[in-house]
């Protein structure tokens, strides 16, 4: 059976910034064909749950990876290093498990695909297919 990564909040784990989850029925059905590994890049980067919401400033996740943008939380604290550390931790899991697909939470500064988050950018640049829910 194929493996994939999934944003842990999409399967009902309370890992979002607000301590809630965001289960997605369409995503859960998609998982029927996979062994999945839930990840929360922000927790893996050392941030607590709950935590102040954060946003990308100065660009998207790719710009954060190249040092041209940052991640700032609602309290005006720079959490860029935690987001980068979390993205690296998720990439390591993907590599260790030979995973080529990640199912990620939309509109997240870590996991967003259309609004490219930090983790999504790092996974994409390393050849991992991204699907947003």
What does this protein look like?
The structure is a single chain. The protein is an alpha/beta fold. The chain has one domain (2-132). It contains five helices and six strands; from the N terminus they run βαβαβαβαβαβ. The protein has helices at residues 25-30, 41-44, 61-65, 80-96, 118-125, and strands at residues 2-7, 34-39, 54-57, 70-73, 101-104, 129-132. The strands form two sheets. It has a four-stranded parallel sheet with strand order 2-1-5-6. The chain has a two-stranded antiparallel sheet with strand order 3-4. Helix 4 (80-96) packs parallel to helix 5. It is globular. The relative contact order is 0.21. The mean pLDDT is 98. This is DUF523 domain-containing protein. InterPro entries: 2-thiour_desulf (IPR007553).
Tally of helical segments: 5
Helicity, as a percent range: 25-40%
Order of helices and strands: EHEHEHEHEHE
Poorly predicted residue ranges: none
> What strand line-up does the widest sheet have?
2-1-5-6
**Relative strand content:** 15-25%
In total, the number of strands is 6
Provide a compact summary of the structure.
30% of the residues lie in helices and 21% in strands. With 133 residues, it is α/β, with parallel strands linked by helices.
List keywords for this structure.
133 residues, 5 helices, alpha/beta, 6 strands, four-stranded parallel beta sheet, two-stranded antiparallel sheet, 30% helix
């Amino acid at each position: 059976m194929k493996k994939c990564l999934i944003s842990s909040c999409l399967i009902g784990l309370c890992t979002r910034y607000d301590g809630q989850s965001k289960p997605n029925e369409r995503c859960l059905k998609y998982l029927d064909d996979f062994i999945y590994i839930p990840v929360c890049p922000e927790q893996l980067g050392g941030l607590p749950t709950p935590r102040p919401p954060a946003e990308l400033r100065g660009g998207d996740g790719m710009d954060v990876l190249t040092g041209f943008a940052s991640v700032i939380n609602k309290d005006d604290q720079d959490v860029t290093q935690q987001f980068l550390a979390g993205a690296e931790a998720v990439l390591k899991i993907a590599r260790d498990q030979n995973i080529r697909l990640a199912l990620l939470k939309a509109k997240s500064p870590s996991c967003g695909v259309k609004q490219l988050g930090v983790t999504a950018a790092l996974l994409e640049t390393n050849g991992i297919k991204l699907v947003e829910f």
